[in-house]
Amino acid sequence: RMDNDNDTLDVLLLTTFCLVALETLELIENQEITALKEHIKEQQRLCRSLPAEKTRPTWTGFCNRVSDRHFRRQFRMTHNAFTNMCTILCRAVGEEIFRPERTLTSTRNSASLEGRGGLIPGEVKAAISLRLLAGGSYLDLMPLFDVSVSRIYGIFDEFLEWVLKAFQFPLTNYINGENWASLAAIAEPFSYSSNGSFSGIIGAIDGLAVRIRSPRLSEVSDPGNYYCRKGFFALNVQAICDRSKKFLWCYTSNKGS
Question: For 104-128, how does the pLDDT look when each residue is reduced to its tens digit (9 = 90+)?
């Protein structure tokens, strides 16, 4: 009987030991799984914190993929006119500021050669700005040229500074300086194309209301006068062009009303 009791006790001890061992192994396994999950989460967090890889296209590559007809519809000018505009802008602000693509393709500063970051050529900046002026959205431009929202609007401001520096509106100088020969040269195409009906015309004028936010009292003394008849706050932009649609004068600071 004592032998049977001893055998029973041994079996109970062995069973208890096995259960404890199994629970210990399960606990260790759970701890290892938890540690592995935490490691995976940390690696995922580190990967998300890395800058996204950029595959910004070159301007030359972009032009090769776009037909001349589509280019004109997209940027409201021919490819040759765009190239001429970029040449004028580059000459006005300098290559070190405009940075034409030909000066970047052989350097590691080129955004199209770098995995991320890098300098954006002036042609791409001009294309982004013209597309915005033509009614495009930053939502389309972000994937097209692989640039961020904040960068797009910074580029637009930079482009406007280039334009103001490169292009002059001569009509005011012609009138103030009584340059009758230049004014006659402007009027002649209007007269010729209308068989003399529009003789002596020195420009065609038009305007539009550019929507703005409500000005603050700290910015202007009469914010209400910027509210236009179309039901929003605006600047009344006016411009004059010649028979070839070349701008001769522009004013952007009139109140919307």
Answer: 765 544 444 444 456 889 999 999 9
Structure tokens given for 12:
């109970």
Which phi and psi (to 5°) does residue 241 adopt? -130, 165
Distance CA 178, CA 201 (A): 15
Return the number of other C-beta atoms located less than 10 Å from residue 228's C-beta: 18
Q: Is pTM, for the whole model, over 0.70?
A: no
Whether the CB-CB separation of 232 and 251 falls below 8 Å is answered with no
Phi then psi for residue 251, to 5 deg, are: -140, 130
The SS3 call for residue 129 is: helix
Distance of alpha carbon 172 from alpha carbon 185, whole angstroms: 15
Under 8 Å CB-to-CB from 90, ≥6 apart: which residues? 98, 100, 122
8 Å CB contact between 95 and 123: no
Report whether 54 contacts 115 (CB < 8 A). yes
